[in-house]
Each structure stands twice: as structure tokens, then as C-alpha cells.
Specification:
Elements (H helix, E strand, L loop, with lengths): L5 E7 L12 E7 L7 E11 L3 H4 L22 E7 L11 E4 L6 E5 L4 E2 L14 H11 L7 E4 L7 H10 L4 E6 L2 H10 L4 E4 L5 H8 L4 E6 L3 H10 E9 L3 H4 L15 H7 L2 E4 L6 H17 L6 E5 L4 H9 L6 E5 L1
């Protein structure tokens, strides 16, 4: 393969006062990076656009497992690409597809231990950029979902929520309820993602809608949003309900501030009376668990029992706009840029 002399990448050029917009980023051409021993050069084919980048921009958030993004930094995130140069004998070979965390660029030099060969577990390589592991781990590890239980998923049309409802159903949930801010997404969640009911943000009070959708209460909450939806879930919880908090988009995507806090007032007395367990959850480093998820996900995809809701944006030039549109709630499922 004849390699180019340069590569393009998306950099942050200024820290916004509110939500980031395309003008806060620039697409920069740089010399093609050269891998050394213990590294491989990967030509990215797809990378995922994550709303959580907003929290990292400017470094307002503390105690996050990922580094802040400051002016001049290249954005990063999950990516899938093809190895095009491998100086050493260890690690993936030229031509192999790998996943890594240096998205938002055409070519990336990746340490061999961070370039994970995809294998054939999933029928579509791009599906490795799914966010289903967070939902699967939350349901099986943190919540220990039991057959017949009622599950409420906030942000049910997002990257995590678009799979969480389907996974809950496949794991034996008796009733699955989601939330979204769009009537069009709500309709698709019921027809395509297996939700039994959807509560609509901005319509009737969330608490009233949830009480109607789950008259017997909820057993499990998979929360990606926080805010009023978390508050409503406390009111709807059954005895010994388990709440798993995997995101806080109500604060991360707030118009003001740096997206580093998501305050919400909840009735702590209800937590005590109902003996609700609240767990802040991140999948973290669990290679065995991720392998388990990937195997089950691949089987469900091939059998047609699950779908991978996602949108593909073509070309690096539209990547900054894709981030803005994702934060603005215009997408359904996971957002991928096809490099």
C-alpha cells in the first residue's frame, strides 16, 4: 500500500463558554505519523462521536478517567481501522482490523497493546463501536436483572439506551420503558427497539407519564440522563429497586457551565423507605466481561434478535457538525463518522 505523506485530524481551537459548536474546531493537516517498534500505524475507517467529549473540553470536569481537551489538542474516541504499517513482529499484522481510542484522525500511531484485533465475533466491523457494553454490564452486573422485572431506561434512543432496552428484553425483563425528547424517536423506540412504552420529555410531567407506563412501579433504572427523570424514577420505584447511573447528560449537555456537574434534588426519604440501591457505574477494565458481551451481541445480531441503531456520517469534514448535532439531540442511536 502506498501511504500518503500527510493525515488530517480534528483539533479543538478554542474553549466555548457554553456548548461546543463547529467553529470551536479545525481540521488540520499534519505529516503522516511514523510508527516505531511496539507501535502500529492504523488507517481509521470509522470513529464514534461521543457526547461525553463536551465534559472533557476545557478541563472543567474533575476525577474523570480521560484527560481534558485543551486548545490545540486533537479529539479522541473509539475507532476501528486497518493496520497499514507494523515495524515489529509483535501485535496485529498489516491488513488486520483493530479497535483503539485514537479516533478523530485519518491515521493514528497506536501502541500494539492498545490495538485490539476485531476477529469475526460481529458481522459488521463498525458494530464494534457500539456502546452496548455499558448497558449489558449495568443490567447483568450492577442491577442483576431478574426475569419478569420492569426496567426504565432514560435516554432510550441514545447510544447506550438504544441497546439497553433490547438487552433488557433479551435478558427476560417483563416490561421495558424508555424516555426521549422526540415523538419521532418515541415511535421508533416502540416499533424498532422493543420498548413497551415511552415517556416524552417536555410533554406531561415525567412522573405522571411514568406512573401511567409502569402502574406497578419499576424494579431497575438504567439512567443515562439524571435530572427530573432520576427524580421521577425514585417516585415510581418498587421496594428494593436497583438504580444504576451510567450517565448524567442533563448536566453534561446543559447550555451553561462546562458540563462538569449534574445536580438533582431527589427525595432521600423515599430511598430509605423503599430501600433503593443507587450505584454509579462504569464498565471500566473488564476484558472478560467485554468479551462475553461481544460474543452475545454477535449472536443476537446474526439471529436478528437485536439491532444496532446507528447513524453514519460520511467524511471527516462533517465530524465537528456531527458532534454539535449529537449534543443537540438530532440523532438516533450511536453516531459514527465514516472516514
Amino acid at each position: 500500500m502506498t501511504l500518503p505523506r500527510s493525515s488530517r485530524e480534528v483539533r479543538l481551537i478554542s474553549v466555548p463558554e457554553g456548548l461546543p459548536r463547529p467553529e470551536h474546531f479545525a481540521i488540520v493537516e499534519t505529516p503522516l505519523p511514523v510508527p516505531e517498534e511496539g507501535e502500529v500505524l492504523v488507517r481509521n475507517r470509522w470513529f464514534a462521536v461521543l457526547a461525553a467529549l463536551r465534559t472533557l473540553i476545557g478541563g472543567a470536569a474533575k476525577d474523570t478517567p480521560l484527560p481534558p481537551l485543551l486548545p490545540g489538542d486533537t479529539l479522541f474516541g473509539p475507532a476501528v481501522g486497518e493496520v497499514v504499517a507494523a515495524p515489529g513482529d509483535d501485535g496485529p499484522a498489516v491488513g488486520e482490523l483493530v479497535s483503539h481510542w485514537q479516533g478523530w484522525r485519518e491515521y493514528a500511531v497506536v501502541p500494539v497493546e492498545q490495538a485490539l484485533p476485531l476477529g469475526d465475533a460481529l458481522p459488521d466491523p463498525a458494530a464494534h463501536l457500539n456502546q452496548g457494553w455499558s448497558a449489558y454490564a449495568a443490567l447483568t452486573r450492577a442491577a442483576a436483572l431478574r426475569p419478569g422485572e420492569t426496567v426504565f431506561v432514560t435516554g432510550g434512543a441514545g447510544g447506550v439506551g438504544g441497546l439497553a432496552g433490547q438487552i433488557a428484553r433479551l435478558l427476560g425483563a417483563g416490561r421495558v420503558i424508555g424516555s426521549t425528547g422526540s415523538p419521532e424517536k418515541a415511535a421508533r423506540m416502540i416499533t424498532e427497539l422493543g420498548y413497551d412504552a415511552v415517556v416524552l420529555r417536555g410533554a406531561e410531567p415525567i412522573g405522571e407519564q411514568l406512573a401511567e407506563a409502569a402502574p406497578d412501579g419499576i424494579d431497575v433504572l438504567i439512567d443515562t440522563v439524571g435530572g427530573e427523570q432520576l427524580r421521577a424514577a425514585v417516585g415510581a420505584a418498587r421496594q428494593h429497586a436497583r438504580f444504576v447511573l451510567v450517565g448524567a447528560l442533563s448536566g453534561q449537555l446543559a447550555e451553561t457551565g462546562g458540563g462538569a456537574a449534574a445536580p438533582v434534588e431527589i427525595d432521600s426519604y423515599r430511598l430509605i423507605l423503599k430501600q433503593i440501591t443507587v450505584t454509579g457505574f462504569s464498565g471500566g477494565q473488564d476484558p472478560d466481561g467485554r468479551a462475553e458481551w461481544t460474543g452475545r451481541f454477535g449472536g443476537w445480531l446474526r439471529s436478528g434478535e437485536i439491532v444496532f441503531p446507528h447513524v453514519r456520517v460520511r467524511g471527516m469534514d462533517d465530524a465537528p457538525q456531527a458532534l454539535h448535532d449529537l449534543i443537540d439531540g438530532r440523532y438516533y442511536g450511536t453516531v459514527l463518522v465514516e472516514v
